[in-house]
Amino acid sequence: MFKLLKPLPFKEKYEKKKRWLFRFTRRVYCTAVTIYLVESENF
Fold this sequence. Notes:
It is built from 2 helices and no strands. It has one domain. It is mainly α. It starts with a helix and ends with a helix.
């Protein structure tokens, strides 16, 4: 029982971190695309 319960908080923390990382990466990607499009408009 104890063995089963122990890895749960770590997994939860990992999932939260993974979700945050995905959001962060997507935001950076969107910003990069926006900058690229703005730069393309200028030339």
